[in-house]
Amino acid sequence: MRIGLTMVAVAVAILYGTATAFSAMLILTKADDGRAFGLHVGDTVLLTLPDDIRPGDGWVLDHYDSKVLEKQTSETRNIPPLNRVDAPVDLTLHVKTKAPGTSELVLKYLKRGKEVGSPFRVRINVQP
Predict the structure, then answer these.
(1) How far lies 100's CA from each of 34, 88, 103, 110, 128, in Å?
(2) Which pLDDT band holds residue 90 (cuts at 50, 70, 90)?
(3) Which of 30, 36, 47, 59 is close enough to 123 for a disulfide, judged by CB 3.0 to 4.6 Å?
């Protein structure tokens, strides 16, 4: 099972063009809400959350320390193999660590433009 997760991490790194000899990739999901993680400068965070395709609904990046983290990409994709219009989707957020320090990465879920439930929150501690 560990080898399978490593293969997925390598495939995602290649897909997003972030694979380097000395960087690590931290893959997060909704189950990681409230946790803290340690990374090094140049490492990557790939966060995937279940999302909503309707306009005004879904996850939005609320805040993070831009001195410590840099948002790379954010996209919503249909969950394979369900490529129907009404199929469930995932939000994938790609963030790179850029300087030593600590930052919270906080996303809020909006329904018709209003915040619903608790925000998703992780703490990223970045070392040199």
Answers:
(1) 21, 37, 10, 31, 5
(2) confident
(3) 36
